[in-house]
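User: Is it possible to get a 3D structure for a protein together with its bound compound? The compound here is manganese (II) ion. I've pasted both below.
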Amino acid sequence: MAIIAEYIWIDGTKPTRKVRSKTKIIHSEPNGSQIDDLGQFTLDFFPTWQFDGSSTSQAEGGSSDCLLKPVRIYPDPTRGADGYLILCEVMNANGEAHGSNTRAKLRKVLDAGAAQEDGWFGFEQEYTMYDGSRPLGFPSERRFPAAQGPYYCGVGADEVYGRDLVETHMEACIEAGLLIQGINAEVMPGQWEFQMGGPGGDALKASDDLWIGRWLLYRLGEDFGISATLDPKPVPGDWNGAGMHTNFSTAAMRAEGGMKVIIDAIEKIAQRIPEHLAAYGAGYEMRLTGHHETCRYDEFKYGVSDRTASVRIPANVEEDGCGYLEDRRPNANADPYEVAMVLLQSVCDLY
Ligand code: ADP
Ligand code: MN
Ligand code: MN
Ligand code: MN
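Assistant: Yes, that's possible. Here is the predicted structure of the complex:
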């Protein structure tokens, strides 16, 4: 039996980290501690591996080895029964977390007390599909499609582009056991969204699943000749940018009387605008203009059902008197570990 393990990690590219992967074939049989009660592999079965950090902006050539430490196992929908996707943290040769390892930083905040709040995160990952140098649905050369309006949640070959890949990606996410919650066509042609995390999605699970969801999107895009980008403003002018609205709740927000906890949390978030923006993805100034369903990046306002606010309280949350808030500022290219971390830090006073 050979196991095909795709080791996946996040690199050190600036200003926006990218996801990388390489394949390890494991020929050995698992021993007792490498199989759990359900007959599944434990993390123990997948050895620590290394890679050339000088090719990923994570090390200098003279001392280039970085370590890949497996942290979560997923079935691999692209390879079938003997395939696994192995999400890894990047460690230095001495075993300490590498500077680019934002997951380890998030773990620290969780361990410092944030985990007790039982936070859930629901990320709305928007992205844009490209066929060559033009978004899908954009006519060739310098012409533009008809203005925005019909594309959001549209149906029909004249309004929606790339659905084959979107459906294949959604099925793959389900097969991999990701907490995917839904998909929709977005406001600009070629632009789509999938939602990851949500109820039961703690900071690590929701963020891990989002990174794996991104990897699957890129990987399956290869088969379709389509590249997906997380560019926050792929087309300048009167076209919506791509965001990663982040829905967030703590146990207290979800419990009776949670509305007051939500407002208190938003007021804490409002005190730390620069710290939040620093975690919300490169190029936020281009997307958070005050137009196209955004609030300007240097302003802060919140409101019920308000899609021109920085933070929105969904209408159903006001009606129920408890639930969650939506921070609309994160860009599509934000790192979910950093977004979750800054929200937890602000709301739990851990900074
Ligand atoms: P919209 O496009 O209207 O902003 P979406 O349906 O795309 O909303 O995304 C809302 C997300 O919020 C969903 O993915 C859902 O899983 C998530 N969510 C729902 N309840 C909670 C909660 N209590 N805590 C965190 N996220 C939540
Ligand atoms: Mn949405
Ligand atoms: Mn959206
Ligand atoms: Mn939203």
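The chain has two domains: 3-100, 111-348. The mean pLDDT is 96.
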